[in-house]
Amino acid sequence: MNKILVIEDEEFILEAILEILSAEDFQAIAAENGAIGVQVAREHIPDMIICDILMPKMDGREVLTQLRADPVTANIPFIFITAQADKDSVRKGMELGADEYVTKPFTHEELLHAVSRRLSRLSLPQG
Question: Are 67 and 51 in contact (CB under 8 A)?
């Protein structure tokens, strides 16, 4: 069972994502802001992280920067979820090392497609 950390400060969205993932038999764990998310990621070493960008205390870009700088968490697949859908925001997120970028509002299918695409790449032979 894949463990997915969801970092989202809006409780309604966080709960919705956790329900979507749980319904698909993922082990979903939550963090309500970026600072807690970094700590949880380091403690639990999830198979994937889904993270909002605009959050108080520590935004998603800083979360990604800190996790990519840590050898233990550097290679965890990372999906940004955000309302920032302009090309510049997407480009900045990808330049920081995000693997996927899902814009709000999103459907269950869009989120699950991004998750399954990233997880399928984890199981491909390296070469």
Answer: no
